[in-house]
Design brief:
Length: about 210
């Protein structure tokens, strides 16, 4: 029962997947149960996953998450694969969307779209839901999320960030084009760090 709870997908199923789930539920009557979120396909059944290496010649299972579709034959993979999704969902924190190598992300401009179905390419890629950032490294996912969290804090404090490569166009700003700094959106006062930002914000609140 616990495995079923862990395997629940946070994504909505498509009508085709719901139909497949119903068909699979009927097969459970004569087969041993398949955990929620997975489907079994017999050796002579078409799983309709275009890049599946087991299609129509070997009994196998598919993860039903729209961003995954992972296929495997070994029943011990259920727990392992479910744990993988739990780990990645925690890393992504609702800010990223993962796509396995055999799943189209639906972004024509994505550099990883051209590798779809390539047997040499087995890496998932991740799209940031807040900007155009994309990567294949989970460490970069975590680092990028931190950047957005910092930017959110800066915006909440009433400031705008400028990097050394940006001209802030604020009159007589000694930091423009030289170092990372932040300008108050109310009075254009410049600070170099979050601590100064908080102190300046209180001045406006007191005023």
């Amino acid at each position: 029962a616990n495995l079923n709870k862990r395997a629940l997908s946070p994504h909505e199923f498509t009508p085709e997947q719901k139909k497949a789930r119903l068909q699979n539920s009927m097969r459970i009557l004569k087969d041993e149960p398949v955990p929620e979120g997975y489907l079994r396909f017999r050796f002579n059944e078409d799983c309709q996953y275009p890049h599946c290496g087991y299609r129509e010649h070997q009994t196998h299972f598919h993860c039903q998450r729209p961003d995954c579709g992972y296929s495997f034959c070994d029943k011990t993979r259920f727990v392992q694969h479910t744990a993988r999704h739990e780990r990645l969902d925690t890393l992504m924190g609702g800010d990223f969307q993962q796509y396995r190598a055999n799943v189209a992300c639906g972004r024509p401009e994505c550099a990883y779209t051209s590798n779809l179905g390539n047997t040499q390419n087995k890496a998932s890629h991740f799209h940031c839901l807040k900007c155009d950032f994309v990567c294949t490294d989970t460490n970069k996912v975590v680092a990028h999320r931190r950047q957005h969290q910092k930017l959110d804090s800066i915006q909440a404090a009433g400031f705008e960030k400028f990097t050394p490569s940006q001209q802030c166009k604020m009159g007589n700003c000694q930091h423009s084009g030289k170092q990372t700094h932040y300008h108050c959106l109310s009075c254009h006062y410049a600070v170099l760090g979050l601590a100064q930002m908080s102190a300046h914000k209180y001045r406006h609140l007191e005023g």
